[in-house]
């Protein structure tokens, strides 16, 4: 029955600001802007693949959320520089002040994080080859590669 996740929604305080962030800064393709309600939809991964809906709400109604954008390993490795070029601050899972993507060995996948204007935690993540190694925890790519 479940083939994947098609749609997710975020509450945002300023729809125009979020449209700029998701459409212009991140480069998502506009799917639909509802002129009767404060909501905008963006395609994720191309038309018909998945959607992100942004709903404008009063700031006190916004709870910070987290979701991850599926990516490729080369794109995740390039993401820190790409994010900085757009005025965003990349951070790793450990939030230790560095911006090198980290490997979740239990998956295995590599990821990097950043935030949107409302403080939602966003992530670029890509699956790595090889089997899961949960005993390794969260490690650098170099560590991961040395353990293969």
From TrEMBL:
It holds the Pfam family Glyoxalase. Residues 4-127 form the VOC domain. It comes from the Bacteria. This is VOC family protein. Signal peptide: none annotated.
